[in-house]
Model the fold of this input.
Amino acid sequence: APNEGELPQYYIEGHHEPIIAPEEWEKVQSIIQKRSEAFKQLNYQKYSKDQHKNSSFTENLYCGECGNVLGYERSLERRGSNGTKEINRWVCRLAEKYYAVNGCSSQRFHQDYLERHFINLLKGFEQDE
Done:
């Protein structure tokens, strides 16, 4: 049975021949670390919470599947030499909680989708008058 910390654990160096040479292991770990840092710095950056531009919709949108409040997420993606692209999405807060027993299976949707349908809704009111 696996020892998950119930008993003392010991590391015996050189007990058996490694599958990967220690030098190769360290080299790979270094590459993984560098790529991770580069991705965090260059490709994906969260906006601060005080830069929220969707206060009109905040806490006014509810999930059609479970009825929970929809939350807003905004990020900036840098895509090589093509510049940056702002990504605005809405998501059910219960769908984000993967550990929830009765989690929601609804998907994220983009801000553009919300704006398009909201404008169509307003146009419908105009035509009804």
Q: What stands out?
A: The mean pLDDT is 80. The chain has three helices and four strands. Residues 46-128 form one domain.
